[in-house]
Amino acid sequence: MATPARSPTSARALAPTSPPTGTSSRPNRPRRCCGRSPHRVPALDATAERLPFDDDSFDAALASVTVHQWSDTAAGLRELRRVTRGPVVVLTFDGDALDLLQLAEYAPELIAAATRHWT
């Protein structure tokens, strides 16, 4: 069975309407996110608990391995929801359970170093 073609209207609806933006509350952190990528994103000094953006400023939000640094998790999650029109994705981990990750089998040195750092 063939899938229906997407109309130009629905394709436009899926296109991002706001540029990518990063934040960092660490003063020694580079002012650009995504390291070596040729498409690096500017990073602003901000904390999750007080994001410097208007309501519904972004199509989507991603918090990647950062929740453990927030002083108030509930406030940070409320802020993510406030500034985001669409989905909010939070990727985090349990520092006490790093050895249970599938990656532990392939990179035991990495897991050992991370365990020392996060626990």
TrEMBL record:
GO biological process: methylation
Extent of Polar residues compositional bias: 1-10
Superkingdom of source: Bacteria
Region (Disordered): 1-41
GO function terms (MF aspect): methyltransferase activity
Pfam families linked to this entry: Methyltransf_11
This protein's UniProt keywords: Methyltransferase, Transferase
Composition bias, Basic residues: 28-39
Gene3D superfamilies in the record: Vaccinia Virus protein VP39
Transferase recorded as keyword: yes
Domain Methyltransferase type: residue ranges: 38-85
Name of this chain's protein: Class I SAM-dependent methyltransferase
Organism: Dactylosporangium fulvum
